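S1.2 Input.
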Amino acid sequence: MWDSSTAELRHSFKIAKGSRGVSAIGFSKDGRYLALSDLHNDHNMHVFDLQSGGKEPVFSKKGGPDKFFHLCWSLAADTFCAVGPKVI
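S1.3 Output.
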């Protein structure tokens, strides 16, 4: 993530080797968390805590066999929904 005013790098994140890239990201409404789905065959979900500045995910779980293209957080920032061509 880069600062939009200075173009300085603010955060970088690591996902597991073999993840093949990122298909979807979503920021929680309070700005604390970033969720992403990778392009691994299992389409893993990862959640990062932006306030702690951690580069490693605080949560990772298999998403299933279908890709996700969009992530959206609830207003309470305790739940997110992932959407793909065959799954919600």
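S1.4 Remarks. The mean pLDDT is 85.
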